[in-house]
Amino acid sequence: MKYTITINQLAISKIEAEAEKIKIDIRDAAILDYIIGWINAKKADRIIKNNEEFTRINFKHLITEMPILNIRSKDSVSSRIKKLKSVGLLDTFQARDNTLYVTTSQKCYELFYTPPVRENGQGIRENGQPLSARADSTNIVLDKPNTNLSQEKLYEEVQKLFPHHRLPKKLPVVNLDYFLFLYEEKKVLLEKIGNPCAYIKSLLVEDNYLHYAERQARREEKARAEEERRKKERDKYEALKNEEREIPPESKKFLERFLGRVGV
After folding, report:
1. Which residues in the chain land under pLDDT 50?
2. So what's the pLDDT on residue 245?
3. Rounded CA gap, 167 and 241, in Å?
4. In terms of pTM, does the model score above 0.70?
5. φ and ψ at 84, to 5 degrees?
6. How far apart are CA 137 and CA 253, in angstroms?
């Protein structure tokens, strides 16, 4: 049984304001919460359709996991999923054997994971720039990544890491960039990621996240500093040789290795 149900009332109220004749009740919202969780479950069955990942809905499992809904029939669940699709929160695909597959829409992602700036000024810095993305107990704040990689390039870089999986093209840009950050800086273990699409979609951007452009600038600065240090050591080494001072063999071997001159 699913122990907890999370309902974003602000997002639901926005949906109802946009869809005048369609009302989303608490059962619809609970089913949406189940679907969002099931999409991220490792054991869920998935297919790729038009470069988009769809997850199979097991109606029996949904009804069993959500007894509080007091729903007993597949038709009742199906009609509520159609309602969620009609308001733009879900996309669905019906297989030839009538198996139903679903995926969350971009609208669902924007409503549930990108809350608006608050009227009291929280969510932006004094200079007008958005705060770094972070998660708290009520919402997730994501700012647009300041990256010099295009969405297509970010996708290609991440896809290279998963040659045996075909990732959908609509993965959020900030999540793709944040995944690269985790892989580069925190050495995330790829072999432990059974479902890369769900893993990338579920990432919560933390305060210590650095955009690709800044990470690249730091790497280049570190490389320049290392090269400058090696240059100074090479100059000292050449000065010692010019003074015709005898260098102990052990020290000479160490210096050759340090300066990258092994075999020279």
Report:
1. 114-147, 264
2. 62
3. 57
4. no
5. -65, -35
6. 58
